[in-house]
Amino acid sequence: MSARQAAGGVALAIALTLPLFVKSPYILHIAIVTGIYMVLVQSLNIVLGYCGLLSLASPAFFGMGAYVATLLALKLGWDSGVTLALAAFAGIVTAVVIGFPSLRVSRHAFVIVTLAATLLLQLVALNWEDVTRGSLGLPDIPAPRFFGVAVTSRIAWYYFSAAAALGALAATWLLVSSRIGRAMVAVRDNEQLALACGIDAFRTRLFAFCFSAALGAIAGGIYAHFITYIDPGVFGFSVTETLLIMVILGGPGTLLGPLAGAVIFTALPEILRLAPEMRSLIYGVILLAVVLYHPRRVFA
Amino acid sequence: MTLLAVRELTKRYAGITALDAVSLEVREGSITGLIGPNGSGKSTLFDCVSGFQQRDAGTVSLGSRELGGLSPVEVTRAGVRRTFQQLKVFAALSVVDNLLVSAQAAPAYSALAEALHLPATRRHERRMRERAHQILDELRLAPHAGALAGALSYGQKKLVELGMALMSEPKILLLDEPVAGVNPALIAELREQLVRMPRRGVTLFIVEHNLKLVFDICDWIYVLDRGRLLAGGPPAEVAKDERLMQAYLGHG
């Protein structure tokens, strides 16, 4: 067993037994949020790390998933298995709408379209008041329910969030270890050569983008149920900012690196208890430092 | 029998005629060479055949199939594989993954089935892996199978490029300067691999500046100069052609 495997085993053991020796609701709360971020970082990692595409649409999928899961739960009271699946589907549709026109054009067009689409969705959430109640937001989101069993206690939430993080890791591993995963890296590495190998670069990227969107939307749905209230702020740019720093510092295009990034950058601000303005500033400085001194980590 | 037929192929770039009504044929099972001075349009011809550039006029066909207007991916899937003048491998992938990526084209696959690692997918993957290792054995690259392609020497990368091309089982392989920048020992090695290709069912169409190699291994040679086809014939005949010398030594 290598040192890395040993470290992974210890991390997993700690993760699985955490609620047994940590009773503080505050720390468990942060751990649950970390689990949700672990789903989100894999979503961005697939696109940024394995495809080498800068996507600013993380909040679009996150917010879409949050609103779809919330509205279905509030208005129809459906089982959360169904509502989260439909949230994922809504994420995929959003990804197709964004990716189909922009992924054909250029990587730059893609960046701009992902940003524009996110801003547009936030505007819709703000102004479609009949459905979203605009800036008032949607309160009293019920606990998620699977086959009649509700996730209510903090410990249940902890394991639910951990299961989501593990599920996202497994899904990402299945994707990147498959032929599609190899094709994604090939297209990132050298698009011309990939074309000469018969790899359809556009379809490969679009599939990866949809896969990533489904993960992001599921994370959004889980987040909404956990916080029990959402407003158009879920489409905010801060999600992108936080995720970029987690993935880029963790190690884009690796399976476990971004997870470490997620742990560090949800725990760090809490430990430092910084004002949000300071946090953005420090994140910015760290990101700049990495880009300046380790630029290969950004687009390896 | 003619495998690849190029008829009246013309390509212009903003006033410059890179290819001027070029017609040529590559016979199935042959090693056909395309020579000419720098800027004579050799790579442009490869670009037009492989779909990386759209032609302005003329036709390109593989057997009975018209290739004009197809995208690079479609041309590759039709059985025409190309390499690039500037050596390209996937640096971030291992050598064996470079080969596996090249087997991507066939058969058409369902992305979801792949991501789910269904049994049929895994069987196919195993078969491809076996074939990749077999090709690496033949190219004497087996010890480097797990190494990142980017970490290999230039000459080894050339062999990887050849292995990738073999992996995709093309009907015809367009090689753009297969021995450029390679040391004499490796040229001998590459030569040995190239002359075996027709026996593996792969027809070769080669652009190369190393004339010694071209005249040595080719069954048929075409000479291109300033976008026009000057001559074409068996090596012995082309070697005697004065226009060849003229093209290379300049136009006085």
Question: How would you portray this structure in words?
Answer:
The complex is a heterodimer of chains A (300) and B (252). Chain A is mainly alpha-helical. Chain A has one domain: ABC transporter involved in vitamin B12 uptake, BtuC (Orthogonal Bundle), CATH 1.10.3470. In chain A, 77% of the residues lie in helices and 1% in strands. Chain A has 14 helices and two strands. In chain A, α3 packs antiparallel against α4, α3 runs parallel beside α5 and α11 crosses α13. Chain A is globular, with a radius of gyration of 19 Å. The model of chain A has no long low-confidence stretch (mean pLDDT 88). In chain B, the strands form two sheets. A six-stranded mixed sheet of chain B has the order 6-7-8-3-9-10, sandwiched between helices. In chain B, strands 2-1-4-5 form a four-stranded antiparallel sheet, covered by helices on one side. The N and C termini of chain B lie far apart (39 Å). By secondary structure, chain B is α/β, with parallel strands linked by helices. Helices cover 38% and strands 25% of the residues of chain B. In chain B, α3 packs parallel to α6 and α5 packs across α6. At the A-B interface, α8, α9 and α10 of A face α2, α3 and α4 of B.
Helicity of chain A, as a percent range: over 70%
* Shape, per Cα inertia axes of chain A: globular
How far apart are the termini of chain B?
39 Å
Number of helices in the DSSP assignment of chain A:
14
Q: SSE order of chain A in H/E notation?
A: HHHHHHEEHHHHHHHH
Determine the number of helices of chain B (DSSP H or I, runs of at least 4 residues).
Answer: 10
The biggest beta sheet of chain A reads: 2 strands, antiparallel
Average pLDDT confidence of chain A is: 88
Instruction: List the strand order in the largest sheet of chain A.
Output: 1-2
Beta-strand share of residues of chain B: 15-25%
Query: How many whole angstroms does the radius of gyration of chain B measure?
Result: 19 Å
**What is the average of the pLDDT values of chain B?**
89
Query: How many strands in all of chain A?
Result: 2
According to CATH, the fold-level topology of chain A is ABC transporter involved in vitamin B12 uptake, BtuC
Beta-strand content of chain A? under 5%
Shape-level CATH architecture of chain A: Orthogonal Bundle
